[in-house]
Amino acid sequence: MNILSVTAEIFPLVKTGGLADVAGSLPKALAAHGIHTRSLVPGYPSVMRALTGASPVTQYDCLFGERATLVAGRTDGLDLLALDAPGFFDRQGGPYTDDHGKDYPDNWKRFAAFSFVAAQVAEHGVAGWRPDIIHAHDWHPALSLVYLKFASRVEIPRVLTVHNLAFQGQFPARRFTELGLPDEAYSIEGLEYYGDLGYLKGGLQAADAITVVSPTYAREIMSPTFGMGLEGVMNARHDDVIGIVNGIDMEVWNPSSDPYIENHFSTRTPLRRLPNRQKLLDRFGLPDTAGPVFATVNRLTWQKGMDLLAGVVDEIVKGGGKLIVHGQGDAEIEDAFIEAARRFPHSVSVEIGYDEPLAHQIHAGADAMLVPSRFEPCGLTQLYALRYGCVPIVARTGGLSETIIDANDAALHAQVATGIQFSPVDANGLRLALRRAFRLFRRRRVWENLRRQGMRTDCSWHRSAAQYAELYGAMLTPEIRLAG
After folding, report:
1. Residues 354 and 205 both lie in one domain
2. Does residue 377 share a domain with residue 303?
3. Which of 101, 166, 296, 402 is buried most deeply by CB count within 10 Å?
4. Nearest-angstrom CA–CA distance, 281 and 276
5. How many structural domains comprise the chain?
């Protein structure tokens, strides 16, 4: 079975969040099921550098006004197609925004071109290779499914995975005439979205199957609270929506061999983890004390509940804990954490930005990982934390509620607890969760059991990849119907 995976990010070549990790690790997990995945990605500078010596397979003299070349190559165990279009993707900023964090004004065109090429590959194949299924991730390539539905004579099963419904790719309707689609594509059954173009909305309408990254999130997005204006579409397509929890790459995130940490450890050698804690404190200039080291490695945004965390720093300091913050996002939230570090220089340390090695070191050294998201489709940070013996403290929402077992009395007694959940998701709920964490941390044997049980959790793609394989098989064998 051949799958064309279409994604705007893929680890380790380009990453702004969990989408890249999933796009980079799922193909490897699917290989165990006899499924060959070829991933189509934009030709960002980091991608083209990694594909030195790649072979050109298709030339475009005028792709939405730009010259472009589709190239094929392999790197880091990934079979890739990259759209080398310097006018669209060779930029100094990020994948979607410039150096000042502003969306590129031509994002509508950049990802329309990318989607058009994806549809061409799905329809005609490339260099003797043809996919059986096209699988698009999030809004950036969602238009490829629209091209296939409205402007192709080839029937190929279409899958769309929603990693976060909040990001939708909404653009002015006047751009429709430049997309090269028939008039009927701009309709309620297609791209029309509150008088604009909705790339994700169009993809949801054009997909044969829709996956979201946890069963809980699949239910949540049917409601106005989490549906982000698309709850009507999601409810209309509810029979075609399947929740599949993300996994992680167990080799990339492996505390017994991680090249980014000095002291390797495992469930069999838990004491070897201790030096990582001291190194982390030294790295962030914090003195060692008897209290727990809390950390967060996340986007500093409202969605991630980072404003809630910034508002309860005093609870951590008062209890004798430390807080390490690593991430970037909204300026006002960044400033709030920087101010907290100024007020509590011996208890709080902040590093704005994102560094992959540092993220591994924080997971390997902190005692607890804070994930207070207001909504979280799946989340990967809490899975990395489990793997590294860093107890997750999470909001009870989306995939966080699927992947963490709360340390209530029954779960502790049964020795199945893996972290702390809290609800409601507000400042008071987070304060109460922090107090629970302090109490559990003082019970050293209980805390160590909690840490150890988390490390034993299967965070791999094994079960989830099997679900994707089953979905693909059902789409190629229409008489088989999956249960949502």
Report:
1. no
2. yes
3. 296
4. 9
5. 2
By CB atoms closer than 10 A (0-12, 13-18, 19+), residue 99 is exposed
Amino acid found at 93: G
**Cα–Cα distance for residue pair 70/26, rounded to 1 Å:** 23
Q: At what angle do helices 462-476 and 18-31 cross, to 10 degrees?
A: 70
Helix axis angle, 444-455 relative to 427-442, nearest 10°?
A: 110
Is 315 part of any domain? yes
- Tell me, yes or no, whether 242 and 385 share the same domain: no
Query: Could you tell me if 287 and 185 lie in one domain?
Result: no
From first to last of its 484 residues, what are the pLDDT tens digits of the chain? 999 999 999 999 999 999 999 999 999 999 999 999 999 999 999 999 999 789 999 999 999 999 999 999 999 999 999 999 999 999 989 999 998 889 999 999 999 999 999 999 999 999 899 999 999 999 999 999 999 999 998 999 999 999 999 999 999 999 999 999 999 999 999 999 999 999 999 999 999 999 999 999 999 999 999 999 999 999 999 999 999 999 999 999 999 999 999 999 999 999 999 999 999 999 999 999 889 999 999 999 999 999 999 999 999 999 999 999 999 999 999 999 999 999 999 999 999 999 999 999 999 999 999 999 999 999 999 999 999 999 999 999 999 999 999 999 999 999 999 999 999 999 999 999 999 999 999 999 999 999 999 999 999 999 999 999 999 999 998 655 554 4
Say if 257 falls within a structural domain.
no
User: Using CA atoms, how far apart are residues 484 and 482, in angstroms rounded to an integer?
Assistant: 6
> Would you state the structure tokens that stand for residue 338, as one six-digit string?
């920087």
- Shared domain for 170 and 302, answered yes or no, is no
Which residues touch 4 (CB under 8 Å, ≥6 apart)?
Answer: 37, 38, 40, 118, 121, 122, 131, 133, 134, 135
pTM score, whole prediction? 0.94
308 and 234, same domain (yes or no):
no
- Structure token pair of residue 249: 């790459």
- Check whether residue 82 and residue 150 sit in a common domain: yes
Q: Domain residues for 286? A: 270-455
> Tell me, what amino acid is at 164?
N
- Within 8 A by CB and 6+ apart from 138, the residues are 7, 8, 19, 161, 162, 163, 164, 167, 200
β pairing state of 241-243 and 209-212: parallel
Domain for residue 279, yes or no?
yes
**Is the same domain home to 202 and 285?**
no
Say which CATH number the domain at 359 has: 3.40.50.2000
Q: How far apart are CA 131 and CA 1, in angstroms?
A: 8
Contacts (Cβ under 8 Å, ≥6 apart) of 456: 267
